[in-house]
């Protein structure tokens, strides 16, 4: 017989083994269960989202300062069709109408962001506070609360004050940390008595990679191999500082929560029996979500990032890694600075290992990862080029978060799908399918034990989709951007999402199928309304062109002559074809 203390030791060892096993995500187990009918936990929060630059418009009204997106979108060739967010959905003026739409959906929360230059025009608090901007957000928050909708407020959804970019180089400069902290502190002071959910940064991955590495987003810098890492470093530190500010100065009286919203595509190994593919897939996720999540939960960058960027930097003959380091004090300051984790998730990739030589030329965040991304051609891809519908990837990502970061409280802060601009189809069955399947995978993840507290459909309205301008529509509500009143029309998905919210889940196959059918029925009347409105505005445009003495010849040609000639050509070809068919 084993002595008692030996049994104890064995127990402890087994416990340690179990615990450490629980920490590991199992890459070899990918179960695609069938649809699960059931409900979400009581109190689960349903919402929809937006962001300031994408919806507010009023870019130069009531004392607002310029943001980097105002400046970037005004440069020719940066945005599809040279679109800008100047007026966008006119959300600044229409927030009461939009609240009615949220009520119609029976939303529990609304996620929006505060435009930093709207309330601090130069970005520096001691320069000037724009009270009119403060008043706008006060009214919005009050109105939401009067309608029993909880505000979830993002402090930074990409619209840095332009002055900070010009003076300091934006997120390349360490001074952003203090300026952002001052701005956040002002928000806590002015709005914190009513706002209880704060998100410091939205999708810092995009800010760093697309703003400072590829230059597709504002401020449009291409500092390959270094810019993104440096921007991210300052953003992570700024997040931690703001969390501490809230924790020491405001939490006691305001009792709110401060989190960060990270975006993460899922990366699935091409071959789950191949260790190299598994490691490559893990690297993909660590370089994406882990880059930001690991510091805020564990106090440092993922080991695999430090190893890969470090080794490549050595090969490139650099004295230090291109990935900056945190000091021991910074590590303990950062660790645990996340009351809840916001997850923005849209799509998945298959990942396989691929080595990139680490020569000096061609260094980039992308080649640092040593992997290749693949997609399955059978995956549906209704809108954005990058967005394939792969619902099971969502459950995998949520389970990964659970195992890696100690099962934190999660709010899904973005999930949804787009369609192309040319499509004025309100009967968005593919979006219904996307929401149905993704929300179902989230329900399965909750049953797996993932601590998801709320879900935010992205987005409430069609809006300015960054470098894609208005060419991609993510909204539950269609916005007619050609009409200066920017009217909103419900897509079929509004009805479907509303049913999920009312039932707090999915009752049974027959009922859910009924929801889909009914939703699609309602949209044909909205479609007619939209079509009638479009005809009316086309007629009004023609009249304007005819009556306006300054109408340019070009406008006349593109707006009237070309469509008329095209229609005539189609008609003539059809008649000709019929004639030929008859003769044969
Ligand atoms: C993430 C961004 O946070 C959001 O602003 C954008 O609309 C969606 N991705 C879709 O591209």
TrEMBL record:
GO BP terms, alphabetized: carbohydrate catabolic process
MF terms (GO), sorted A to Z: beta-glucosidase activity; galactosylceramidase activity; glucosylceramidase activity
InterPro entries xref list: GH, GH_1_N_CS, Glyco_hydro_1, Glyco_hydro_1_AS
Listed PROSITE patterns: GLYCOSYL_HYDROL_F1_1, GLYCOSYL_HYDROL_F1_2
Keyword Amino-acid biosynthesis: no
Catalytic residue positions: 414
Signal peptide coordinates: 1-22
Keywords carried by this UniProt record: Glycosidase, Hydrolase, Membrane, Signal, Transmembrane, Transmembrane helix
Segments crossing the lipid bilayer: 560-581
Enzyme class, spelled out: hydrolase
Catalyzed reactions per annotation: beta-D-galactosyl-(1<->1)-sphing-4-enine + H2O = sphing-4-enine + D-galactose; a beta-D-galactosyl-(1<->1')-N-acylsphing-4-enine + H2O = an N-acylsphing-4-enine + D-galactose; Hydrolysis of terminal, non-reducing beta-D-glucosyl residues with release of beta-D-glucose; a beta-D-xylosyl-(1<->1')-N-acylsphing-4-enine + cholesterol = cholesteryl 3-beta-D-xyloside + an N-acylsphing-4-enine
E.C. no: 3.2.1.21, 3.2.1.45, 3.2.1.46
Transmembrane is among the record's keywords: yes
Family: Belongs to the glycosyl hydrolase 1 family. Klotho subfamily.
Annotated protein name in UniProt: Cytosolic beta-glucosidase
Organism: Austrofundulus limnaeus
